[in-house]
Amino acid sequence: MLLAEQRRLLCDYGRRAAALGLVVGTAGNLSVRSGDLVAVTPSGVSLERLEPESCPVVDVDGRLVEGDLQPSSETPMHLAVYTATGASAVVHTHSTFGTVVATTMAELPPVHYTALLLGGTVRVAEYATYGTPELAAAVRAALKDRRAALLANHGGVTIGHDLDSAFEATRLLEWLCEVYVRAKGVGEPRVLTEEQLAAVVQRALHPPVFPRRED
Ligand SMILES: [Zn+2]
């Protein structure tokens, strides 16, 4: 079986996405790239019921290489992202707070410093019908220099150097969207300034070193 390990990982993370409520029904799709091949979740199957052999393998040009089921209808978006970025994994969900922000806003402003892990402000890609080349192009543009994008009136997408990092980026994106939405219910959220964000980068680059006590 081609990409056996990658297809097993798709099942593991697919189940986690379903268990965490990041997807409902057959929504959401994940993929992992290895060289010229991409293992992707199938169309029409709930992520919680995935089996490795039911995950198709396609090449980067979108031709089915192995598998009985059709690849996810969002496979063109996954392939466009791989072509445009150095990512090795893509996670797309219809998570609740991500979709709320994607339905109401043009971008998610950085109100918490961990937004820097996604590249700062998260753009909302222009609306296009699911599965179309137009949506793929809009998402590719929104992901420029970012690890996450929201899809207008649809959901979110994140990328990573492996499936675990792409999945953690999806969890972080959903958490940031939830914080923003809940903060908005209390008052007008303060957005971090460029200066404050630059200070966070400097802090991360130069972490404090605690001296060891000599007894
Ligand atoms: Zn979708």
Question: Would you summarize the structure shown here?
Answer:
Helix content is 38%, strand content 17%. The protein has 215 residues and is α+β, with helices and mostly antiparallel strands.
Describe the protein's architecture and organization.
This protein is of the alpha+beta class and 215 residues long. 38% of the residues lie in helices and 17% in strands. It contains six helices and nine strands, in the order αββββαβαββαββαα. It has a nine-stranded mixed beta sheet with strand order 4-3-2-1-5-9-8-7-6, sandwiched between helices. A hairpin with a 2-residue loop joins strand 1 and strand 2. Helix 2 (75-84) packs parallel to helix 4. The longest helix has 24 residues, at 163-186. The chain is globular. The relative contact order is 0.14. The mean pLDDT is 96. The site of zinc ion has 7 residues, from loops.
Main attributes?
single chain; 215 residues; alpha+beta; nine-stranded mixed β-sheet; 9 strands; 17% strand; binds zinc ion
State the shape: globular
Distance between the ends: 59 Å
Ligands: zinc ion
Q: How many strand elements?
A: 9
Binned strand content: 15-25%
Report the average pLDDT across residues.
96
Sheet with most strands: 9 strands, mixed
Radius of gyration: 18 Å
- Which regions contain 5 or more consecutive residues with pLDDT less than 50? none
